[in-house]
Known about the structure:
The protein is mostly helical. The chain folds into 2 domains: about 5-95, Type II secretion system (T2SS), domain F (Receptor-associated Protein, Up-down Bundle), CATH 1.20.81; about 95-330, Receptor-associated Protein (Up-down Bundle), CATH 1.20.81.30. The chain is built from 13 helices and no strands. Helix 10 (about 230-245) crosses helix 11 and helix 11 (about 250-255) packs antiparallel against helix 12. The longest helix is centred in the first third of the chain and has 57 residues, at about 80-140.
Amino acid sequence: MLSNNEKYIFTSELALAISNGLQVEDGLKMLVGFDADVSICAKKLEDIMKQGYSFTDALKESKEFDEYMIQMVVVGQSIGNLDVVFKELSTYYARQKELNYQIQDAITYPFVLILMMFVIVATLIFKVFPIFENILSQMSMSLSLMYSARILSYIGFFILLFILVFGLILYFIYKKSPNKVWMTKLPFFSKLNYQKEMTKFTYILSLFVSSGYALIDAVDIILLSIEHPVLKDKILHVKNRMLEGESLASALVKENVYDQGYGALLMAADQSGHQDEVLKTLSNRYKEDLERMLSSFLNRLEPSMIAGLSLLVGFVLISIMLPLMNVLQTLG
Length: 332
């Protein structure tokens, strides 16, 4: 499946081509000269369409696109605004790409810091310790303190090794997993993922409201793009309330999709007829809240990790210095 960045390139270029009066097929030919994966995907879609498939069916057959994009293309073709849909999709994938980069930055920094500390501790244990042991052996001195220091240092070494291996396992599971539901069970990432999904949900909803698309059908399409189980369950209940005759704003508020302040704002917008504008405003606020959450996480994590890892390295250094102090006292 294409990455968010590749889907951004794909949708933005098709939006440009279609808005200039070109057909989808012409737009695909333009994409052949782009990024390798995008080019391969465009060629694959061309080949599938030559077999008699429609553009939408070709998107499904290629297995390169998420269900949300496919359904949005169906909507665009049904209302005759495919270029507008591709433009909105490009904006959506650009935002998703930006959010993913911010989350990666939040995770990468502590991992690099731990890796550096691991290398330092490993160097002390496997390079410095043997030198001191050799000196003590040549001087026919007791190695009991050295052995104790080595044991203490190994404890620190294996703590760092465990953290690194655990982090790498989580990373590979994240990359290989088709859905990220398991992340919702992790303490910090549960809240982070929910905030990210709320940002996505509010933004997509604002697009549908502003386009005048049938809201019940819009909710069905939005459900295809939501991964967080708690939020998905709330949206399903919203849909049921709408089927019973409630307005979208009322259903969202009653199911606690938005907090009290945002809910009041949405209800007021529903009465004034400016729901799309308010939803876009809320989407930006959720995005800002997510950025603040990541920034706050890093601001707390950085000094905590530096302090903790410095103590760990200091502990290893002290364990090395104790035998050295013993040597100096003996020589004295």
